[in-house]
Amino acid sequence: MTKKSVTLYPGQTAQMSAFGDRIRLARLRRKLTTTLFSERMGVSRETLRRVENGDPTVAFGSYLSALQTLGLSADVNNLANDDVLGRKLQDAMLIKQPSRTVSKNTNKRTFKSPAIEGPLQEGRQSLASQVLAKYKTKSVLSDKD
Question: CA 133, CA 94: separation in Å to the nearest integer?
Answer without folding.
Answer: 18
